[in-house]
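Structure in, sequence out. Go:
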């Protein structure tokens, strides 16, 4: 794990030379958390979609088929929401990172 931390810290030192290693690792952890949240949204939407398509394809009852179509629709909406939230969160975090770097550079 120390090799990974050193590699990440070296990469961040190249990009933002005025940040400490702790700050660089904090930025990296936050970006990874944003990506994990995005993947959780996708995983949930795929599970809902699969359940909906299974219910729609297997059932002979119109009620269950309707629920299946609703589940597939919700899955598509969740995937779209995941993409929008991921792009927004990542852009917001990168904006904050640039602001923090400018503040650190201004203090020096």
């Amino acid at each position: 794990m120390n090799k990974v931390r050193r590699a990440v810290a070296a990469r961040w030192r190249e990009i933002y030379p005025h940040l400490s290693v702790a700050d660089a690792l904090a930025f990296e952890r936050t970006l990874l958390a944003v990506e994990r949240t995005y993947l959780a949204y996708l995983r949930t939407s795929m599970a809902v979609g699969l359940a909906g398509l299974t219910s729609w394809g297997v059932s002979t009852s119109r009620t269950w088929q309707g629920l299946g179509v609703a589940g597939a629709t919700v899955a598509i909406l969740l995937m779209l929401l995941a993409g929008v939230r991921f792009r927004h969160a990542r852009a917001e975090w990168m904006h904050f990172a640039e602001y923090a770097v400018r503040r650190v550079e201004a203090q020096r």
